[in-house]
Design a protein that fits this description.
The structure is a homodimer of 670-residue chains.
Chain A lengths: L6 H7 L2 E2 L2 H7 L9 H22 L5 E8 L4 E8 L9 H6 L3 E2 L15 H13 L3 E6 L6 E9 L4 E10 L6 E9 L9 H11 L4 E5 L5 E4 L22 H10 L5 H7 L6 H11 L12 H13 L15 H12 L6 E2 L3 E2 L3 E3 L2 E11 L10 E6 L2 E3 L7 H8 L20 E9 L16 H53 L7 H8 L1 E6 L8 E10 L7 E5 L9 E3 L4 E3 L4 E5 L7 E9 L11 E5 L6 E2 L2 E2 L10 H10 L26
Helix pairs in contact in A: 3-5, 6-11, 9-10, 12-13
């Protein structure tokens, strides 16, 4: 008889490995398969995201067809078909039948899928709930026929199991189709497949998406642009993002002959000068074999890396949407709402978070059919994928709620939380690594760097809204006043002069005294040829003025724009240009023209003008310079303003002022 | 020269497997390692949770020591030591150095850790941020010395790497100690190790926890009970929780000779009668070999399972805390706040969610030093582990916010969201499978069954609060009135009688007319021996009364209680008993005594009395019967009430009334 097992032996005997498929099968709520409604959405989402990624990699304008059909009482059949490059026969089982298997995890560039979990999880869920295999049809260009595989997942081993296999003729050069039968429920409205596809269409204006609903309704989202987004490039990791353990591990595994070559070739951002400095500070010679560097030296090396300024990680690994396409995408989908104002979209310059580059983009739409008594609609996106769940637990929502929107013209209880008003806010975060809070990829984790950029992007968009709202009010008022003066005053003068038999006097001093404003107006573009947007600045004040004009326009349009007269300064990264205008006597004007190539769809609304050198109260059609521009005004402007006794508009109190002094951000916390 | 690769080949060549360790290393925010503060908390949490699980399995009262010490500028050393059974040498590397490896995933019973991820993730994070191995010391009873291993994780393969190994004498029979050096930051206050240990102490009153903070401060949470919680038992899965794919898979893998034996022995809840019914409905004979049942029959079998009522999954796989220990745990830790009221804690009967049993428990504390102008403090727990993050995204928070607390005496803006008041609410969910929203185990996913139980538990606790608040007000008022009447009236009568030279009249009719109340009061227990709580019901109304008395008391104390007189009915599961009291003439009383064994610590506060047969306005010291009791009142009580023209108090409007008609729950949605 074997001796009785001790407690420790007994406990040890129960230890065993858990397969990742088993784990997620049991915890399917983590992957977004909690209930039949959400399971459907997650399945559609994972399949469409994969299709979009594949099309972009193959440089094909995506054509994606989604069909959802009833299949018994509580089951649906989901079909997603794309015109992507197709998948080689030998890879099909692994791609669809194995969790944690994929091509994008190690690539270090922006993509929708990264984890190699999503679509396999859908296959897992389908098999679990209906015991039916998933059918995959895929054709690559170089083969005549499509491979058709039916497969399921062996959860205990996390390996694909091919149930049947066939060849099929398919009348498209290449593409992939997946068909799953799963326990699911179709709904419309919030958190539905329609909502997801609508969001996807907004941030992927180059895609054409169709959806066939179970009741036969067909919904199509057509392209808003025929241009593919630039393909994000892979780049080696940036040293700022390396933790000590990771650096150590990479050094040990490196095949480069010297640590110097390791740093310049297996990391990004390390130039020859930085390398020299790093080597010197870390007490190395630079010729050491990477795998043989002792632990303490690795620590010193990493410390040195953080002391030396490096080139920021390349933004080429990212594929932001860009201000123009954000606006066009919103217009394409929001047509029926007829908003009164599409704010110029904001695309912040790329920043870095733990060695990974990221970009924040913000769009804002106001008025029209948007409900005025509801919280604003917040559309959240990560790497061009809509986030439909967990809004409350997302860093984007936190950033929106932390801004005091009352300053920008929206209602907001107590100055925090989602503001109320006829407004839709779009926020897109693009990064080589999105910090999702869970595998279901529904919310972003809090992060100080990310929050800073979100806040800046939202503030910029909010400022556009404020400008629009105050301009609307004041322009209406000034226009009314102006119309009266310009109509009545000359008539009055003519009549009076006639009565007294004297010549009609110069009305300028009188008009300017009554108006007492500087008037800025951009003319609608003339048709054909390149678009020229002429902005006229008129001094209707009784005093001569030296004004500084500032322009902000979409950053992606800035490089193609030409200006007349030439600006005195520009900042292409932020899409800004500025001019010291010639001295304007009362009732005189000058014109600044911005010219963009035809087809760029820049509109007068996309140009934001700011003026320094005149009191805010006397300015119509432009705003005083915001405080965060941090521009030194020319002496002439300052002197003229001082002479007039009109203070130059200063930074708004409490405004975040990150740009002015990067790294010493200071948000007031009222 | 090899032919150029096609696009599909090129894409295929990039496909590869992702190790689960790599995945979590890159997505460490998912596991709760976003930043140095949270990384510390997660590390302490995972180590302590494991220690508690181990001690319970070994039936040892846990003694857990946590030490956090500075180790350079941005590093901390974390030490967690327990008196558990220890771990066999051969299992140490896998337990600490491999993700998805553990003993509790397949056990189907309540435990803190289940996934086999937590502590290995801490080892992974420590290695990643400091490149230092983790040191594990463990001794099992049957060996003389402790094994000391230093280990790290090979992330690419998700396997442990033992760096060094030694033996050490350790002066305890058995136990485990883990020491990690990690990039971390120590804070106090919310979401800190102290907060986590305080919460742990509340729901684990049998544990002794000590914490040594980096500045040398030592905090101790002593035991509130010397009794170990019952060890949850493993049980086979309940068929209600099986999806089709899972059932199919289990049948295929079964070694039982017949499907009948499979159902009764590899599933729980299927008795002989239910088996017969299931077999009949599914068109099988019951003698089929499980692995050979065709797909369609499996579908029919599962459909049949859902049509036949089965015994609910056993609650023996759970280890709820119990009403008494919740209260004792709260008292043990909240001592310095001196709350005015500890509500009798609520322990709902076990329910089932997708085949997995679960229990909801609610504790509520009111007044004293708790801040009156803040939202209530919500302490969330799952399987005896405090949940400190993601409060906003948790089903518990949703349930608390969905209740209209204004009905129960707390402020609440608009009747939803966290109420405001000097109140602390504890919610504990115990289950064999907790639906966490992510691997960090910080929030529960929404689920209708869970929500229903949470709502019922919270309502029960809220009712106790309401009773307390209204009783406090009315008792104060009645006591004042009573004192005056009882003091002044006899004096007045004596004086008047003396003056007119007549005998003092019987004051009863006058007193009862002025008081016009039924008074219920429970006397404080007398010391020594079993505790007898005598409740006196006095009819101070001018009318004879037939009253029905209802008692609700902690369910875990109910079985030991004896009653005098014997109740007319009881419901042990809900801890309820009721009596039709003898007819009470004006100014007469009767006494009902509840007796519990010594040491059970039942207090007068733990007994809730409800009365039917008298108008709510005439009732002091007890409440009218809540609407959800669904008890048929004896004819005598109804008749007496009708005679008096006093309606029997009905269910409060809008109250959830699940119990009355199980399964047809109906919450009004105002």
């Amino acid at each position: 008889m074997a001796p009785a097992r001790t407690l420790a032996q007994e406990l040890a005997s129960r230890q065993r490995e858990i397969s990742v498929a088993e784990f997620f099968e049991r915890n399917r709520q983590i992957l977004g398969f909690d209930n039949p409604t959400r399971a459907l959405l997650t399945t559609v989402k994972e399949a469409v995201d994969n299709a979009l990624d594949a099309c972009e990699e193959a440089r094909v304008l995506p054509e994606i067809r989604v069909e959802i059909a009833k299949e018994g009482t509580d089951r649906l059949k989901v079909l997603v078909e794309d015109n992507g490059p197709g998948i080689l026969r030998k890879e099909i089982p692994n791609v669809f039948g194995r969790l944690l298997y994929g091509s994008r995890f190690h690539a270090n560039r922006q993509s929708r899928g990264q984890q190699g979990i999503g679509i396999s999880a859908a296959v897992l869920y389908a098999g679990l709930t209906t015991a039916r295999p998933t059918r995959v049809t895929s054709k690559v260009q170089e083969e005549e026929a499509a491979h058709v595989l039916e497969l399921s997942i062996d959860t205990q081993r996390n390996l694909p199991r091919v149930v049947s296999e066939d060849l099929e003729l398919w009348d498209r050069p290449s593409g992939t189709r997946i068909e799953l039968i799963l326990k699911a429920k179709y709904i419309r409205g919030r958190q539905s497949p329609t909502e997801y596809l609508r969001g996807t269409a907004i941030v992927n204006p180059h895609a054409r998406l169709t959806l066939l609903e179970p009741d036969g309704t067909k919904i199509t989202y057509d392209r808003a642009t025929g241009e593919l987004p630039a393909l994000p490039k892979e780049s080696p990791p940036h040293p700022y993002g390396l933790e000590l353990g990771e650096l150590d591990y990479r050094l040990k595994g490196s095949k480069r002959p010297t640590v110097g070559q390791f740093l310049t070739q297996e990391c990004s951002g390390v130039g020859p000068r930085a390398l020299k400095e790093i080597i010197a500070r870390s007490g190395l010679t630079g010729r050491e074999v990477p795998s043989k560097i002792p632990g303490e030296s690795v620590e010193k090396l990493l410390a040195a890396v953080h002391e030396v300024p490096l080139v920021a990680p390349s933004a080429e690994s990212l594929s932001p949407i860009g201000p123009m396409l954000i606006k066009r995408g919103l217009k394409n989908v929001l047509g029926e709402v007829r908003p009164e104002f599409y704010a110029p979209a904001v695309s912040r310059p790329p920043k870095v978070r733990g060695g990974f580059p990221f970009v924040v983009e913000v769009g804002l739409v106001y008025g029209g059919g948007l409900p005025a008594d509801q919280p604003v609609q917040l559309l959240r996106f990560a790497n061009r994928v809509p986030l439909l769940f967990q809004q409350g637990a997302c860093a984007i929502t936190t950033a929106v709620g932390a801004l005091d929107w009352r300053r920008y013209g929206l209602d907001q209880k107590g100055g925090n939380g989602l503001p109320v008003g006829p407004c839709l806010i779009l926020v897109h975060v693009a990064s080589t690594k999105i910090p999702f809070t869970s595998e279901a990829k529904e919310a972003l984790a809090e992060d100080p760097e990310l929050d800073k950029e979100l806040t800046l992007g939202l503030q910029a968009a909010a400022r556009h809204l404020k400008v629009h709202l105050s301009r609307r009010t004041r322009r209406d008022y000034a226009a009314e006043k102006f119309a009266i003066i310009q109509k009545i005053l000359p008539k009055l003068a003519a009549k009076t002069s006639g009565l007294v038999g004297k010549p009609v006097p110069d009305l300028t001093p009188i008009i300017t005294r009554i108006m007492d404003i500087v008037h800025v107006e951009t003319a609608a573009p003339t048709g054909g040829g390149p678009i020229a947007l002429a902005t006229t600045i008129t001094n209707y004040t009784p005093r001569a003025r030296v004004l500084e004009l500032f322009l902000e326009m979409p950053t992606d349009q800035f490089p193609q724009a030409s200006f007349d007269p030439a600006p005195d300064g520009t900042d292409a990264e932020l899409g800004r240009a500025w001019w010291t205008l010639p001295k304007l006597s009362p009732n005189t004007r000058c014109v600044v023209t911005v010219q963009v190539p035809k087809g760029s769809e820049v509109e007068a609304d996309d140009l934001e003008f700011y003026i320094a050198g005149v009191d805010e109260a006397r300015l119509i059609g432009a705003e005083p310079l915001p405080g965060d521009w941090d521009v030194r005004l020319p002496r002439a402007v300052i002197e003229a303003a001082e002479e007039a006794g009109e203070p130059i508009a200063a930074a708004e109190e409490g405004e975040v002022d990150y740009d002015a002094e990067e790294g010493k951000a200071d948000v007031d916390d009222d």
